[in-house]
Specification:
The structure holds two protein chains of two kinds. By secondary structure, chain A is an alpha/beta fold. Chain A has seven helices and six strands. Chain A has a single domain, classed as Aconitase, domain 4 (Alpha-Beta Barrel), CATH 3.20.19.10. A three-stranded parallel sheet of chain A has the order 1-2-3. Chain B has two domains: about 260 residues, 2-Layer Sandwich (Aconitase, domain 3), CATH 3.30.499; about 150 residues, Aconitase, domain 3 (2-Layer Sandwich). The longest helix of chain B is centred in the N-terminal third of the chain and has 16 residues. Classes of the chains: A alpha/beta, B alpha/beta. Chains A and B meet through helix 4 and helix 7 of A and helix 3, helix 4 and helix 6 of B.
């Protein structure tokens, strides 16, 4: 589990979430993770409830992107809403070994590990607009401001 | 077009849509539960400046930690009640009404051909009555409260055809667990799942169980066709056919995948720790000791579920090593079960009846497990730590399996009731 359900209604801020992030899987995760780290994961990453604490937590500890074979749907959507980058690229997950240096080019849709480069599908423009605004809430605020202005 | 394509085209105001296409839609309702508190706290300044999009859009049901287990929950409930009052929210169900998904169906808030989004993953349940419904996160729920609209990607669809007939003591739960075990927890990721074939044998209650668990194979939504069974159910809750326009898939729709299951060959199954797709025939797990049984929840807490369990437990005692917790999905079901004598049966057997809500299923309160314990549950998830303890094991099964197992104190094949 990315984030234990027992904390669902007691931990809501990034600071409260951080220490419990992935604790059932790797109790040392919160201690060892560094700003700028990437997570490489298998299939159906983020499966389960609609809680967004895992996404908030991953962003708060400085994860720049999660690269996985596939993602669970609500987690994928949630990440777009929070501006966390998710990359579906099973080939890259297969090629990656712990400690490898990774280079990510979001514009081109490529990820390089050592001498190999893999491409992943570019995000649709509607989704990029939300990411560029810094997440769904800033995007919504801007939309509401524009609407009010035009009235 | 498939069901998902047809309904999303309708809501997007387009004649035709294709999988992969992104459409902007306005849902009929937005479901929130106890998480309405963190949702509204995200948008306090915006709520003050712009207000909410519509007081008819949100449906708020307090169900997750009820009655409040701690001051923090009580405060969140209080914040929600204040919000409901301040913005004159039309559809609010306070502590005690039941689990949100059951309430949505019972109150006729999900109808054939309608579109609902909810900040809970099991929002997929309303496909039981031919609605398109899907889970979203809190941030998106917050944005929807303000704007009333969001984007959806038109999903690929998977057609699941059910052939033959269910065997005695085998239930809809065994069918959906068998399917999830077959396709895996990621088998329907991003997809719309349609149930076809011999579905008229499944009541709306049973369809609910299957649509509810659609999300456990990764589905965006899971839906049954609207037929005589649906219409009869809706009329029983006072909704006439003139109140809705059903949408059924075209016969020549294109599916990403087509699967067929023969119900006659499906027997009782159990999902073992710690994955819903780790499904085994019951004979492989029979005899495993259990310390707690959970009967109920939004997956299997309806009258027909309680009926079959009561039939098994009538005149019997729950094993001395087992705590049997009964969690009706709603107050209405609780009352009906009282009337039918099921509640008396459970209590006389040594069970504990909990208020209609979610508590133990997510490990919030009322039935948290201890390290080393095993629970056999009719709920929908058995992830590690789900019931509040990391070192406990959760097994998922049908109400019949859970009821008979509670008597023997170990996982037991429900067909033993008739074999004797």
């Amino acid at each position: 589990m990315l984030f234990p359900g027992k904390y669902t209604y007691t931990c809501n801020t990034a600071e409260e979430i951080k220490p419990h992030l992935l604790e059932d899987l790797d109790p040392l995760f919160a201690k060892n993770v560094k700003e700028g780290d990437l997570i490489f994961a298998g299939k159906n990453f983020g499966c389960g409830s609609s809680r967004e604490q895992p996404v908030l937590g991953l962003k708060a500890v400085g994860i720049v992107a999660v690269v996985a074979g596939s993602f669970a749907r609500i987690f994928y959507r949630s990440s777009i809403n929070q501006g966390l980058l998710l990359i579906e690229c099973p080939e890259a997950v297969k090629a990656y070994k712990q400690g490898d240096k990774v280079w990510l080019d979001v514009e081109k849709g490529t990820i390089s590990i050592g001498s190999s480069t893999f491409s992943f599908p570019k995000l649709p423009k509607e989704i990029l607009a939300i990411r560029d605004a810094g997440g769904l809430l800033p995007y919504t605020r801007e939309k509401l401001r524009q609407k009010k202005k035009s009235q | 077009m498939t069901f998902a394509e047809k309904i999303l085209a309708k809501y997007a105001g387009e004649k035709k849509v294709k999988p992969g296409q992104i459409v902007t839609i306005q849902p009929d309702h937005l479901l929130m539960h106890d998480n309405a508190a963190p949702i509204i706290s995200k948008i306090q300044p915006e709520l003050k400046e712009y207000g909410i999009y519509s007081k008819d859009l949100p449906v708020i049901v307090l169900d997750h930690v009820i009655p409040a287990a701690a001051e923090k929950n009580a405060l969140q409930h209080k914040q929600i009640r204040e919000f409901v009052k301040a913005f004159k929210i039309k559809h609010f169900f306070d502590v005690g009404y039941g689990v949100c998904h059951q309430i949505i169906i019972e109150k006729g808030l999900a109808l054939p051909g309608t579109l609902l989004l909810g900040s809970d993953s099991h929002t997929s349940s309303y496909g039981a009555v031919g609605a398109f419904s899907s889970g979203i996160d809190r941030t998106e729920a917050a944005a929807l409260l303000l704007t009333g609209e969001t984007w959806l990607k038109v999903p690929q669809s998977i057609k699941i055809t059910l052939k033959g007939h269910l065997q005695h003591w085998v239930s809809a739960k065994d069918v959906i667990l068998s399917i999830i075990g077959d396709v895996s927890a990621a088998g329907a990721d991003y997809c719309s799942v349609e149930f076809h074939g011999n579905v008229s044998q499944f009541s709306v209650e049973e369809r609910f169980t299957m649509a509810n668990m659609g999300v456990e194979m990764g589905a965006k939504n899971a839906v049954f066709p609207v037929d005589a069974v649906t219409k009869q159910y809706l009329s029983s809750i006072g909704i006439s056919q003139s109140k809705y326009q059903s949408i059924n898939p075209d016969a020549d729709a294109t599916y990403e995948q087509e699967l067929t299951y023969t119900l006659t060959t499906i027997g009782p199954v159990v999902a073992v720790p710690h994955g819903v797709d780790k499904v085994k025939p019951i004979k492989e797990v029979e005899g495993i000791d259990i310390q707690q049984c959970l009967l109920g929840t939004c997956t299997n807490g309806r009258l027909s579920d309680l009926k079959i369990a009561a039939k098994i437990l009538k005149g019997k005692k729950v094993h001395q090593n087992v705590r049997l917790l009964v969690l009706p999905a709603s107050r209405k079901i609780y009352l009906d079960a009282l009337e039918e004598g099921y509640i008396r049966t459970f209590i006389e057997a040594g069970g504990t009846v909990l208020p209609p809500g979610c508590g133990p299923c997510l490990g919030a309160h009322q039935g948290v497990l201890a390290p080393g314990e095993r629970c056999l549950s009719t709920s929908n998830r058995n992830f590690k730590g789900r019931m509040g303890c990391n070192e406990a094991d959760i097994y998922l099964a049908s109400p019949a399996t859970v009821a008979l197992s509670a008597v023997f104190g170990k996982i037991t094949d429900p067909r033993k009731v008739v074999r004797k």
